[in-house]
């Protein structure tokens, strides 16, 4: 506590409290362990985007308006809240890249299977063509020998 460190933008930040490592929204990749997180006071490091994470149990129907009212009661000068994503939305955002990867893998697998089938068809048809020519030439040579013997 009380130590000062600097971020990449060289702004000094004083440590005033410690929290446990946590999963932070959609920036933490799915399945990875919790990463170290630090929070800064708005007056020390103001950013145009801030987020609030709320964990609750029960009915979610009036939760959005209750959160907005509580924030407004704390500080009426805070800009209005534009979105309240539920955990399902956060999960969908976290699963976006794995879904894209799975979809692309499936498309490439179908293309590979199609190319393999076309290649196999080509090899089989070539083999049948060669055997047909050989058997036709063998049949013609037998027929010519029979015609010569008559």
Helix and strand topology:
Blueprint: E1 4-6, E2 12-14, H1 63-74, H2 87-94, H3 96-149
Antiparallel strand pairs: 1-2
Describe what you observe in this structure.
The structure is a single chain. By secondary structure, the protein is mainly alpha-helical. The protein folds into two domains: 54 residues, no CATH class; 56 residues. The protein has three helices and two strands. A hairpin with a 5-residue loop joins strand 1 and strand 2. The longest helix is centred in the C-terminal third of the chain and has 54 residues. The radius of gyration is 35 Å and the shape is elongated. The chain starts with a strand and ends with a helix. The mean pLDDT is 77.
């Amino acid at each position: 506590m009380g130590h000062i460190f600097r971020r990449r933008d060289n702004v000094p930040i004083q440590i005033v409290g410690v929290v446990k490592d946590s999963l932070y929204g959609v920036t933490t990749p799915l399945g990875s362990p919790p990463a170290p997180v630090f929070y800064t006071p708005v007056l020390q490091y103001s950013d145009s985007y801030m987020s609030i994470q709320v964990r609750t149990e029960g009915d979610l129907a009036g939760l959005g308006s209750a959160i907005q009212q509580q924030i407004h009661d704390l500080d009426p000068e805070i800009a209005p809240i534009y979105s309240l994503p539920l955990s399902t939305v956060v999960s969908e955002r976290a699963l976006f890249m794995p879904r894209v990867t799975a979809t692309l893998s499936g498309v490439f697998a179908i293309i590979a299977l199609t190319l393999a089938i076309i290649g196999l068809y080509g090899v089989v048809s070539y083999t049948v063509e060669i055997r047909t020519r050989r058997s036709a030439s063998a049949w013609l040579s037998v027929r010519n020998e029979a015609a010569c013997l008559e």
